[in-house]
Amino acid sequence: MKYAIISDVHSNLEAFQAVLEDLSKEKVDQVFFLGDIVGYCADPNPCIEILQGLTTIVIAGNHDWATVGLTKTSYFNPLAKVAIEWTARKITQSHKEFLKTLPLIQTRNTITLVHAAPNQPEKWDYIFSLQEASLSFNYYDHQICFIGHSHRPIAFVEDEERRISILINTSFTLRDSHRYIINVGSVGQSRDGNPRAAYGIYNTDDVRFTLRRIPYNIERTQKKIMDAGLPPFLASRLASGR
Ligand code: ZN
Question: What is the Å distance from ligand 1's center to 30 Cα?
Answer without folding.
Answer: 22
